[in-house]
Design a protein that fits this description.
binds NADP nicotinamide-adenine-dinucleotide phosphate; Rossmann fold; NAD(P)-bd_dom_sf; 10 helices; alpha/beta; globular; 7-stranded parallel beta sheet; 13 strands; about 290 residues
Length: about 290
């Protein structure tokens, strides 16, 4: 099965690429946009006529996994056109490509399609995004659903894990702990989510593909924590003392984009179909790290 992973230079895409490549029955091609890696080729889905989009000419995907989006939530809020292009237009163009190859489409989405009034959310609950990023992710989801192609929409939130750039929240904390620098953080206690290891997203994706599943699936661990608790779990694990951790509220932070406060995702549907699957939690991930 030929799998094209768009955004393989990132956290989720990189883990999906690495995980699927272990299996002989997958031939995986990953792409990047601005951050070139050894394992990926340049491909710009915002403009299918981009002259540099040559590396995929000989690759005929059976599955396209779209992990690319403009993910800086506050930046999206006042760069609406750029957010639209990177998140919605890229999806529309990749759906065109999927149609040409009769490929299944996998869209990686978010709990930001909800308003955060009644999370953690199941798939049946009503979407109602409250920021530009969330609205554009929902618009992209709707394009996928309307495409009439076989599809999977995997909603995730608060992703951590190993990645080339080590830029996710947990990875950055681990880097700071390793370097011994003083950590000063003011974090909201009222933004809740269900953090997930990107490797679990990859494992769940493989199961869904192998079993020919379609539709919307929420993926999330049993951790339901706020930003403060997440940082505290990491710092506590390594008994890190060089730290000033302060509590605040989302309102006090005055972030440009409104945040869904009671966010997070319930993976009941996925787990009822795959009862043998176990989502790891943040402590499992930390126990694989030796430093500190
Ligand atoms: N991280 C989270 O907590 C989280 C939570 C919920 C949902 N998600 C969703 O999960 C997906 C992957 O997120 P991530 O955390 O892995 O992000 P990431 O680490 O920032 O990676 C994004 C990847 O997409 C590429 N990319 C960006 N815009 C693109 C575009 N318009 N077309 C094609 N590729 C593009 C980037 O390429 P270059 O870096 O090479 O430019 C990078 O490889 C996104 O769709 C995001 O909305 C993430």
């Amino acid at each position: 099965m030929n799998v094209l992973i768009v955004g393989a230079s990132g956290l989720v895409g990189g883990n999906c690429q690495q995980y699927l490549r272990q299996f002989e029955h997958y031939t995986v091609q990953g792409t990047h946009l601005s951050f070139s890696t050894e394992d990926s080729v340049y491909f710009n889905p915002c403009d299918l006529m981009d002259e540099r989009n040559t590396a995929l000419e000989s690759f005929s995907p059976d599955v396209i996994v779209h992990c690319g989006a403009l993910t800086f939530v506050d930046y999206c809020e006042d760069h609406i056109a750029e957010s639209y292009q990177k998140t919605v237009t890229s999806t529309a163009n990749l759906l065109t490509l999927a149609r040409q190859h009769n490929a299944k489409f996998v869209y990686i989405s978010t709990d930001y399609v909800f308003d955060g009034k009644s999370g953690p959310y199941s798939e049946e609950q009503t979407v109602n995004p409250i920021c530009v990023y969330g609205a554009h992710k929902l618009e992209a989801e709707n394009l996928v659903i309307a495409s009439e192609l076989p599809y999977l929409i995997l909603r995730i939130t608060n992703v951590y894990g190993d990645e080339a750039r080590g830029k996710n929240f947990v990875a950055r904390l681990l880097k700071q702990i390793e370097s011994g620098e003083e950590i000063k953080l003011t974090l909201p206690y009222d933004q809740y989510a269900t953090p997930i290891n990107a490797l679990d997203v990859a494992k769940a994706l493989a199961l869904l593909l192998e079993n020919g599943k379609q539709g919307i699936y929420h993926l999330g661990s049993t951790d339901y924590v706020n930003r403060f608790q997440l940082a505290d779990r990491v710092l506590h694990k390594f008994k890190y003392k060089q730290v000033q951790l302060s509590l605040t509220t989302t309102a006090a932070l005055a972030q440009l984009a409104p945040r869904p406060l009671n966010g997070g995702l319930l993976a009941h549907k996925f787990l009822s179909e795959f009862p043998g699957f176990r989502f790891s939690n943040i402590d499992d991930y930390l126990s694989t790290k030796t430093h500190a």
